[in-house]
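Page header: ASSEMBLY MODEL / two components / 814 residues total.
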Amino acid sequence: MKKKKELKISRRTVMKGALAAGAMMSAGSIPSKLFAGEFNIPDPLKPLPTTGGNMRWIDSGDMKGVFWKKLFPEYAASRGITIEYDGLPWKEINKIVPIAIRNGTVHDVFQLPIGMDPGVAVSEGWVQPWDDYIENIDEWLGAFPSGVYLPGVNQFNGKTYGTCLTANKRTGTCLLYSEKYMSEAGYDPQAGRMTYSEIRDAAKKITKNGNGQYYGWIIGGNQVNRWEDVVHTFGQVGGAHSGRGGFTNRHINFQNGKFQIASDQYMEAVELLLQLKSDGSAFPGVMSMNAPQARALMPQGAAGMIFQGPWCIGVWGRDAPNWKYGIASEPVPDGKEAQPLYIAEGGSNTFWLSANSTMGPFAGDLIRFMGTEQGQIYWAQTVGAADPAVNPDAVAKAGLTGPSAQALAMFAENILVGPNPIVRNKDVGIVAAKSRVPDPSLALVIQGLYTGQLKGVEAQLKDCNQRYEDALDKAVEEARADGANVTRDDWVFPNWDVYSNYGAEKYQEI
Amino acid sequence: MHKKPLSKQIYDARWCYLFVLPCSILTGMFVIYPIGMSWYFSLLDWSGFTKEAKFIGLQNYYEAVNDKFFWDAFIRSFIFMFGTVPVKIVLGFIIAVFLNNQVLKLAPFFRTVIFMPVVTAIAIIGIVMTFVFSPFNGPANKFLMSTNLTSAPIDFLGNPDTVLPTVMGVYVWKWLGITMMYWLAALQTVPQDVYDAAKIDGAEGYRLWIHIILPIVLPFAIVIILVEAVGALNVFPLIETMTAGGPFFSSEVMEIYIFRTAFVTDSGTMPRLGYACAAGVFWGVAVLFITVLQGLWMRRTRRI
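Prediction written out in full:
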């Protein structure tokens, strides 16, 4: 009979293991929280129901999903509940959440579809305030930086309906590149911001070096918002000062309250994309892939450059830890100085609690913990720059290094807080609820220009700009007909200095 | 003869009515009621999930018939139908003729192989096909390049000129098995004596098929065409999973158009359920019109 093999651990093996673990911990290369079961989840501030239950949670995934999938099992076990998590792309959130709201099956905690006015969610009774579920909520809110929680944005009727754990100080169109391909092409984006000509030239050289095996540049072209994001941000870097966010903010220059879609800077950005295609530098399948697919091809060596967000850092770190890449700021048009980018006040990834939810005590307890400094440190250590934690002290204590730290430094340098019409006049929210992006949207126009189905950049962007102006005018008119006290002048901020943050004192001035 | 009063007639047939009742209730709930509500919603300016809904009469219909993208999608749906149905009908018939031959020992095997895509989930097929036709390492392009049929990869689903034919090809492949089964059922209604008699009379090869078999199975052909035509106008899951109507509306058929306006706007603004219902009603009437025409054609053919 075969003797059963016994597991023998020698003293030498134990010593080797202990030394290796000690070296890893002391070097700080792997934060301790990466080991399962090491979240220090505090006891709830007040007793939670003992009935258990299942909490359903949906958000836009990416690195958030990575974090939640680590935390949720531990949290659920500590509170005697189960948590069902769905991390989905925004395109899916935009489909699922409205349908689920409509048929009364929306998750306990969810994110609103992009562009949907939170005021509508509150007035329609889809959500309930967090105040009853987050213990000492005033004290808890006081720990967040000013400008994160604002009336008309996430607070309504004196109550907090939306909770933000992350800052919106980031862009989704950084230059991410293969260090090998870029250096072979003779460029180093770390030496300074690249110009459009340099990007074009680098893409040509990478494609030439690839000899049909890889290409200069890639984009997830069937995910239409990618086209708009690139042109919008590049346009801003070029000097088309405009807001970010939903339809009533995006592309609007708050100096004159007009859309910037037909500006020279937008045209230059579109031309750059078309030139990358006409040069033969674009990956040949861009129109049949979405952003995550394009992102996944980068470490496989399919392309040298992609304009994407910091969420790539975590995904690549996990899926292709040995691949060498760099991150840099968006390129600038030739002969121009890079201009600031703008975000509206408030946080990002706002979480809403379904009005039908009975899991409020647990959701509130979890959100409260995540808003504490320890919760924010945990978040920052896993999510990094992808969705930066909103508490800057926690980010500093998280000890981020490498591309994450570089991205955060870049955002801090490049991004300012711009005006937000809804903070000035909450009736702008009614306009947002009435507004409809006209067909074809800017995203689709750029896609159509890229595929060659639309001709003439200038004419198309001018037409598009006019459609956007008309759509906003119509929405304002409809809101006024419903009693809203709002005019297009609410989008004009004459005291906006484009080189400084637009804070509370500026709103008071006007 | 004295006719029974209606109440008496109903009472006498009470068991029939009782047995019809569950089906009538279900039809009312899941067919009649939704149709009625979609007609009503089409008269509203309503996002579909706010309380606020304004009656605007026929304004949605007016807007739809003046929308270039509506008509593009409308026409594209018919291009899809006219591009796929004849191919499926002809190919399905040819395959059925071969596989109906009792001498062919492997006929059951080939029938199973051709039928397999029919029972595969359409969403799975849609997703898998995006990989098959990928320009980067997709097997379709690998084959074309390895055989020197193309020198550069083709972006089948990303090129506005190739996207619709590609999706149509996948649709034909996916559903060819069911068309073949329809034809096999039709061919098996032809009695063996007809074949024998035709052969004795010297009708063989294409003459046998053109002059003897085809006239017998023609009434089946009309039913098959009707079923196939309506099927080709309902291709939402395949197109949504393969292209979602893109690039730049190149593969947007009516169902995708309705879905986009009813539920999902790429730009994230409020959807328009009322407008989508108007487009849906318009589309439904158009499909009904075609179905009626085909029904009339079928009656006429039967008389002949």
